[in-house]
Design a protein that fits this description.
two-stranded parallel sheet; mainly alpha
Length: about 90
């Protein structure tokens, strides 16, 4: 089964990598994130550690659902490619 995601980068009002930038600088920032961040060993290691830290024994059904959702999200982060970041739209976070 192949699951497709549309990645959306959310920018905040202040202190954002994307705030108050023109399109050229914004695209360069996306390229930097894609090439530098997600392709590093450290990024992949931290995501794998977070995945392993998630509990496997749950007290409630809600807790199980939340943890499984988190694990699915983290697994998808490990599959993230530079092109995904470069093709992601940037939206205002609210």
């Amino acid at each position: 089964m192949i699951i497709s995601f549309e990645w959306i980068l959310k920018e905040t009002d202040t202190e954002s990598l994307f705030a108050i930038k023109n399109n050229v600088v914004r695209e360069s920032t996306k390229e930097l994130i894609g090439d530098w961040l997600i392709e590093t060993y450290s990024f992949k290691r931290v995501i794998a550690e977070l995945f392993d830290q998630n509990k496997t024994v749950y007290q409630t059904e809600k807790e199980a659902t939340d943890c499984l959702g988190t694990k699915e999200f983290l697994k998808n982060l490990l599959l993230l490619k530079t092109e995904d970041i470069q093709n992601a739209s940037v939206e205002q976070y609210s």
